[in-house]
Structure formats: C-alpha cells, structure tokens
C-alpha cells in the first residue's frame, strides 16, 4: 500500500503552484496510485499531489463512494449559484470554517493515457473540485475566508501549528 503522509499548513509545498505534468511516466503512475490509496479513507473527499509533497498538477477524489483522479486539472466552468457550508482540509486538520463555493463546477484534464477527462458535479463534488484545484494553485481554503471568520481561522492555525 502506498498510503502517504499529509503535509500540513506551514509546509511551503502547499503555498507553491504545482507544475504541469508533461510526461506520463512511472513516477506519475506511482503518484496516481498513491493519491488514490491515500484518499480512500472515511472522511477524505479529495487529495492534491502537493498535500503529499509532490508539486505536480494532479488530484484524487472520494465522493460518496466514487473515487477517481485527474491530471492537469483546470476549472473550466462554475455556476453563479453559491453554496455556503463548512469546509475543512486534511492539511489544516481539525478546523472547519464556512466557505462560499460555486454550487456547480466542471474540471477538465487528462488521465494516465493522456485522454481528455471531464469531471463535473454539484454540492460536495463541486466543492471538492474547486478546493483541490485551489491546492494545485498553491492556495489553502483558509485564504478564501474574510473578516472575523478569517481572523478566527488564522488565530486557530497559529495556536494549533
């Protein structure tokens, strides 16, 4: 099993935009295996490559028993309708804050064969797609918070880490 440790807030890899995958080789195939095996646990909705220390554009998801991955994902569409709800992150463990996200999101990328992949969904899937693409852009969900909620989150992060 290739279960990998999760990097937590403060690790520079989480704040650095990830590189495009230009060659699909054994390293990338191992990365996808690691992403799929590491996300396949209760309470894990998604996992970006940089959360396991690999600065490449790839993520996996685990939404309601549907587990998958995408390479070089880009959000290509979102709805104007906004969902409100608490959001958490494996890299900011134990902290959940209300985070606005589009109710619908669509991501395009490729699979290990280089074939086009489209992943889309509403609700939790949409939240996951946006959250994981943010990771690959070097952004944690807590950076989306504003006002008192942001101050509370940053205080909690300082105290916890």
From TrEMBL:
<dbReference type="GO" id="GO:0006412">
    <property type="term" value="P:translation"/>
</dbReference>
<keyword id="KW-0408">Iron</keyword>
<keyword id="KW-0378">Hydrolase</keyword>
<feature type="binding site">
    <location>
        <position position="131"/>
    </location>
    <ligand>
        <name>Fe cation</name>
    </ligand>
</feature>
<feature type="binding site">
    <location>
        <position position="89"/>
    </location>
    <ligand>
        <name>Fe cation</name>
    </ligand>
</feature>
<keyword id="KW-0479">Metal-binding</keyword>
<dbReference type="GO" id="GO:0046872">
    <property type="term" value="F:metal ion binding"/>
</dbReference>
<feature type="binding site">
    <location>
        <position position="135"/>
    </location>
    <ligand>
        <name>Fe cation</name>
    </ligand>
</feature>
<keyword id="KW-0648">Protein biosynthesis</keyword>
<dbReference type="InterPro" id="IPR036821">
    <property type="entry name" value="Peptide_deformylase_sf"/>
</dbReference>
<dbReference type="GO" id="GO:0042586">
    <property type="term" value="F:peptide deformylase activity"/>
</dbReference>
<feature type="active site">
    <location>
        <position position="132"/>
    </location>
</feature>
<comment type="function">
    <text>Removes the formyl group from the N-terminal Met of newly synthesized proteins. Requires at least a dipeptide for an efficient rate of reaction. N-terminal L-methionine is a prerequisite for activity but the enzyme has broad specificity at other positions.</text>
</comment>
<dbReference type="Pfam" id="PF01327">
    <property type="entry name" value="Pep_deformylase"/>
</dbReference>
<protein>
    <recommendedName>
        <fullName>Peptide deformylase</fullName>
        <ecNumber>3.5.1.88</ecNumber>
    </recommendedName>
</protein>
<dbReference type="InterPro" id="IPR023635">
    <property type="entry name" value="Peptide_deformylase"/>
</dbReference>
<comment type="similarity">
    <text>Belongs to the polypeptide deformylase family.</text>
</comment>
